[in-house]
Design a protein that fits this description.
The structure is a homotetramer. The first copy, chain A, is an alpha/beta fold. Helices cover 34% and strands 18% of the residues of chain A. Chain A is built from ten helices and 13 strands.
């Protein structure tokens, strides 16, 4: 009986368990393959107990569960693995061990669900002869070549609902609410979550902002009768002119280890602009929770395609989404690029035109509203 | 100041208010147009009070609200409007009145958000000289030419969560749960909701089913140790060989006005197959509720594109979704087609391969499970 | 090491797994008892494989899960168990076998989570010497002596959210929406769910209704400018004068096996009153799903109290809720009563005063509203 | 026609709009009173435009909305109102002005929905002759004399779901997750939310904690095979021996204006205990959002009782919840006390017995688990 292994690497994303479930079900029920699970990413191949059989029973109840039953505790790159030798930490290439283990396990295919980093390693292993098929995964939506990655829709729903919850309390108290969202390099969660959650200001890594524009925007809103403003900030958003997050000239603040730009924006608005401000850091809420229907479906679809690619021996490919259908792209191509928010894209343009401020320039001004009773 | 009108036609869908909001905001803030709302679809043009100004204040709190603030109470086709004359109901073409009203209102553009029927009328009005731009809308996802329609994602989430809630209670009581979902002609909600909600059997209009296959599938599942089965049925699903829904030869049942195929499938499984069965009819829950983040974003994006098309005088176009970006297609093209689930598509194929039964043939069989303690 | 068993009987309710979890954790971690699980209610004592050890690991991930990991597939009353002898079905008292098995298992306590029926059996077993402690459970909230039962809050949230989703779509289309909710004998879910979901008409078993009052109420609402009406109907609601559900004089309809009073009310409103009506049957959605925070907390609290009662050898008691604290009542007392909605209670009175119709009399009339633009 | 006013004071809580709605509906429809709304708490009585008629139409769609349509932007105490005179801020007693305004408005009753502070002012106004009836409101559940306050259940659900979302991602990455929850003086949200969300460590103001106990608990959990730990921290939780939050001897940290104890606990666990830790600050998410079914029902019930108290001229009373029924208590009594978590109460005891650590002592230890594959 032919056999494939499945592994999940990098940060977890809602939908990983749907991938594992679909791989086991399709491979077992339709193609008669055996499926093995690999624990904690590529590390599982270096661990004597790291590879084990996955049965239909193991995946019975996992479709709706967040996280990954295979674990993702590790980001070990087998081409540059941290080891301690003679009291010193160093990076060692152990990829040959991985390749050897895959050989000794007699694996006919390895399905790898992961983001940028994990897929890049998959590509390198493919070039060393490992029969790899990739499945793109990341809540950040920053994998090139696919219309969407699973986990993203769930994260956007989480962000949008958080923003939405804040509207009524912000209005009742005439406050600014700042919400820091995930996204170190890519602002997709903040852009789409902000649009869907009715944010007034959206700050993303791809569009450097100016503190003064924030203050002006908030003050214009107040002048025009708005009782509150909602600010969605990506954790990787930065002011123009550098990566420092100094709130005011003269401040000697340092980026804190926990918490970040949201606190700085909040402090600035409260202290410099003089508007009552509250800050929420959503953090890992965005990575957790049960996947949305879209993410369950997407994860299942990509996994189904990956199994077919594996069974047909089309290795070195990634299963991607194209206009709501599965398609395949070479790993070489996908891993060579990253995806970022294009500041000229539709979503940004529409957001700007509908009055959202991105912190780089003032938004179009609404006329002074007539007084409400 | 140039002015555009916006109307929403046909059944309501979560996201319509996001369209109205984005049209008012973009047109007013960025392009300096006046926006008018049209009440209750095309009927508003025949009603002296049916067209009224829409301001920024009117759309302030509506992004997250289901339904449509413009109303959708009517499906009047101005080319074939029901009127009663001399005690008899007849269809009359009043489209000239609509065209005249649009002229007298000095509208520079009319943005029409609707499904098949509404867009078809929009096309016909365009050919009579009305400066129309379309926005596709339907929870059924059956509009041709767009990757997705808003309202669909919300409906699929609703369906998936309903199915998910039933798993644990079905297992606790060793029952079959049948859930009837929306979709008279197109099975998208049932297919995607069923996939995401972990359905074991999915019945859609595009794939006629056989009652006997349902019974066999349920019985095989019981024999293999599954404590329950979940059946997702589109309201338009029908058995092979005709549109009748007769459960057993000899039954003289008639399709009830309220409720439908779900009850028949449930009755059949309970009485003929002898398995305890419960039926849920989700009904209009799927059409109601706050739009998902995806639908809010999609509705906003298409509305933004529609405003740009209108401002640029590109009439007779529909704003559609292509790979997560807005694009435009001619109304003639969009209204000339319908979209249905292709029984050979990815989603169906992956579903079949992962063990889901579509009622036309037995699914791949799992091996007999080992007994659990 | 002393040992207790835990069993769950009757229909499942969200929170049962929280009970099992808290019993295992408290008994094991704090009191050093062993815990056994009993499969499928009292039946487990008659099944050689029906009783098995429950460990901390078994309850690790179940707090948020609906259903019961012990199963509830059976309602077998050991005092009157259905058996087939000589081809005939008869009821046999096998309670001595149950008592004997409990003895041979050397159980120092048996914790029984169940509703009316299950607790009545527990009382009878207690009088035969079994060291029983009860935990009341039912989504219907009809157990006497406790401020609330777990499962109820989850069911009410489910019902309220379903009603809420229907408002916008009902308004958009000027329709009546009828939602059939659980409750054969007690109307608590419909009363509280209806109040929380903004129902206009609430029909419960404790207050017989008249069809004509429904029609009048809906028509008065239409006359006063309301675009829609929402009707919440308990499955056990019945018209005055009998248990039949005949919609109109002359109708020869029979109560259908699947579906029920909701369909009749819907049919009546559509055909006799002439208002467009849609019907939703929520069904087992109300019994499924993850427990609400309140139900998780309540289930945990009652289980903790039950363990303390057991450890202190206070048998024949039920752990109940009194003003947000756990308390104990004799099984004899709890099992001797049922709880129903008192038609004169606060909730009904407040509902009536705020304009809700219970179908027995017209609600207070709102003045004619001023026309909206 | 007699007339009553309704005002909402202090921080907003989900359910305030349900109170306003029920007051308007009951008073108008059943008792024929006129209802006036007071804007922004007691301040409305000092503002010429601060009191205005509330109609049935004004409250039509607000049952499910968070916040308060009356505004709560102000915490002005008319007995000690901040004013600036001669460039200096001072506190002035303007209560006579409020009393005079209430007289000139010919109010027969004033219904005040608020927490501790607001109800204390209501009591003082009552003793100056104002016909006041109180409705207790606070997400913190710290009002004495009522089984529960509305807003609390919604906040607990929000907290529990946040904790729940973190479980899978915490496990996937072998991390500690710290979630800071609301509650400066009272730990109810953290206690009940933590119980319902499966927290392993719960820190509340009423039980001072020791940093070292946190570290030991987390390390014991790791030693026993738990892949993650979830810590729920009330914003008012403090270490033993003082109110400072210094993480380690020698640290010169100061409590930050934004963010707080959660960051300190997170920093301590990461840096001193050496376990990877992430921090989430839920913030105002807990105060926002649509009220839960329980809170909608509770708010409606208390408002109905308050209207009856007003109509029957029973002033100086507060409508409270007693065993799921409305009751009345003197304002003097309610405003004289506060409610805090009793460290010996049921909920804490059950939590401790089931293995939860409160930071003051190590929890009962689970046995070493057997290795999982």
């Amino acid at each position: 009986m032919p056999r494939m292994a499945v592994l999940t690497g990098g940060g977890d994303a809602p939908g990983l368990n749907a991938v594992i479930r679909a791989v086991v079900r399709s491979a077992t029920l339709t193609y008669g393959w055996e499926v093995l699970g690999v624990r904690d990413g590529y590390d599982g191949f270096l661990n004597p107990h790291g590879v084990f059989p996955l049965t239909l029973g193991d995946v019975e109840d996992i479709l709706a569960r967040g996280g990954t039953i295979l674990g993702a505790a590790n980001r070990g790159n087998p081409f540059a693995r941290k080891v301690v030798r003679a009291g010193k930490e160093m990076l060692v290439d152990v990829s040959d061990e991985v390749v050897a283990r895959i050989g000794s396990l007699r694996l006919d295919a390895v399905i790898v669900a992961g983001g940028d980093g994990t897929l890049g390693i998959a590509r390198d292993l493919f070039h060393k002869g490992v029969p790899v098929v990739g499945v793109p995964k990341t809540i950040d939506n920053d994998v090139w070549g696919t219309d969407a990655t699973f986990g993203f829709d769930t994260a956007v729903n989480c962000a949008a609902h958080a923003l939405e919850r804040l509207h009524t309390t912000a209005e009742a108290h005439h406050r600014v609410m700042v919400v820091e969202l995930m996204g170190r390099e890519a602002g997709f969660i903040t852009l789409y979550g902000g649009l869907a959650g009715g944010a007034d200001i959206i700050l993303i890594p791809e569009i450097p902002f100016r503190y003064q524009v924030l203050c002006e925007t908030v003050q214009v809103r107040i002048a025009r009768g708005h009782k509150s403003s909602i600010v969605a900030v990506a954790e990787g958003a930065r002011p123009e002119g550098g990566r420092e997050v100094i709130a005011r000239p003269g401040d000697a603040v340092v980026v804190p280890r926990l918490g970040g730009i949201g606190q700085f924006v909040g402090k600035y608005l409260e202290e410099t602009c003089g508007v009552e401000t509250r800050v929420t850091v959503l953090g890992h809420l965005q990575r957790g929770g049960s996947p949305s229907a879209f993410d369950r479906w997407l994860a299942t679809t990509l996994a189904g395609e990956a199994v077919r690619l594996a069974v047909n021996r089309q290795f070195g490919q990634v299963a991607v989404l194209r206009q709501m259908q599965a398609a395949a792209l070479p790993l070489d191509e996908v891993a060579a690029h990253v995806k970022r928010v294009d500041p000229e894209c539709d979503a940004v343009r529409t957001a700007r035109e509908s009055g959202i401020c991105f912190g780089d320039q003032a938004p179009p001004l609404p006329p002074l509203p007539s007084p409400t009773p």
